[in-house]
Amino acid sequence: MSEKTEQPTEKKLRDGRKEGQVVKSIEIISLFQLVALFLYFHFFTEKIILKFIESITFTLQLVNKPFSYALTQLSYYLVDSLTSAVLFLGAGVIIATVVSVFLQVGLVIASKAIGFKSDHINPVSNFKQIFSLHSIVELCKSSLKVIMLSLIFVFFFYYYASTFRALPYCGLSCALPVIFCLIKWLWVGVMAFYIVIGILDYSFQYYKIRKDLKMSKDDVKQEHKDLEGDPQMKTRRREMQSEIQSGSLAQSVKQSVAVVRNPTHIAVCLGYHPTDMPIPRVLEKGSDAQANYIVNIAERYCIPVVENVELARALFFEVARGDKIPESLFEPVAALLRMVMKIDYAHSTET
């Protein structure tokens, strides 16, 4: 097997996206979620503090009430208070997650990545993954996060130790704003760390995806050959170009009374005249790009274009160019021609 030394082509990268091989960092997703939480607490700090004090006051008012009554009232109060807060916070985190993924990979529908793969239950493959570069990097990344986050917390509590010692003497109305302010600064430190680790992780994921999608010289040659097409397709394209340039194709389309098509892939030109051509013939037919060209010419010269999937396929595969239609297709072709003649007659009377 050839060694994979070539950088992936654009087609290889596109195919990789379809299989879910995209550059995406989970740390950047975590960063966006942290930012969403920070913004929530930043803009609603005062409201949260007031709600917290209100809940304590409400709980104290229930001290002398019967237990069952107090429990019921407290439950209703907590459900009412927490539902809106949790829903709003959850919506913010979900939106942040979606935005972070979209900014990294765009809109990707990787249906192939959802399917079952036998490698997932292959013990040999799973054993290799344990000692792969990706696993080692993930282990180092997890260790780095534990160490750095621990250092941030230790530094934070050491730096604000005097503030924490003074909180018991401050009172509830004073202590809560101070605590929320300290939490915000702690959150800023954590987010700063996630910015750094997110950039590093994204860089590694980019390197890993490019490495996984590398191609051998034979792969590049084969892809080039596939894009160019096989010799038969080249010959057919040249024939189509010569037909278009010579005008024979356009002439056949203009002589037809109707064009039958199978939405986008097939187009068949039908010729008919009561005296000169009493039995309808297939004057021209084409598929894909040629079919689109036929339809464009027909529309340009106001020739009726009828969409009939079954009839278009039958005419395309069963009747050669210039041949009369077989007896088996008389009825559907006659129905189509009657419809076309009515349209032509109605159009001529209107004009």
What secondary-structure arrangement, pairings included, does this model have?
Blueprint: H1 10-18, H2 26-43, H3 45-61, H4 67-105, H5 111-114, H6 123-130, H7 133-159, H8 161-166, H9 172-212, H10 217-228, H11 231-246, H12 248-255, E1 258-262, E2 266-273, E3 277-287, H13 289-300, E4 305-307, H14 309-318, H15 330-350
Parallel strand pairs: 1-4
Antiparallel strand pairs: 1-2, 2-3
Helix pairs in contact: 2-4, 2-9, 3-4, 3-9, 7-9
Global Rg:
36 Å
**Average residue pLDDT:** 81
Largest sheet: 4 strands, mixed
**Assembly state:** single chain
Count of strand segments: 4
The arrangement of helices and strands along the chain is HHHHHHHHHHHHEEEHEHH
Strand content: 5-15%
Share of residues in helices: over 70%
Helix count equals 15
Family: Belongs to the type III secretion exporter family.
InterPro entries: BsaZ-like, T3SS_substrate_exporter, T3SS_substrate_exporter_C
Main location: membrane
Organism: Salmonella enterica subsp. houtenae serovar 48:g,z51:-
How would you describe the overall organization of this protein?
With about 350 residues, this protein is of the alpha+beta class. It has two domains: about 20-210, no CATH class; about 245-350, secretion proteins EscU (name from scop, 3-Layer(aba) Sandwich), CATH 3.40.1690. Helix content is about 70%, strand content about 10%. The chain has helices at about 10-20, 25-45, 45-60, 65-105, 110-115, 125-130, 135-160, 160-165, 170-210, 215-230, 230-245, 250-255, 290-300, 310-320, 330-350, and strands at about 260, 265-275, 275-285, 305. A four-stranded mixed sheet has the order 3-2-1-4, sandwiched between helices. The protein is elongated, with a radius of gyration of 36 Å. About 15% of the residues are buried. Residues about 345-350 have low confidence and may be disordered. It is found in: Cell membrane. InterPro entries: BsaZ-like (IPR006307), T3SS_substrate_exporter (IPR006135), T3SS_substrate_exporter_C (IPR029025). One of its GO terms (cellular component) is plasma membrane. This is EscU/YscU/HrcU family type III secretion system export apparatus switch protein.
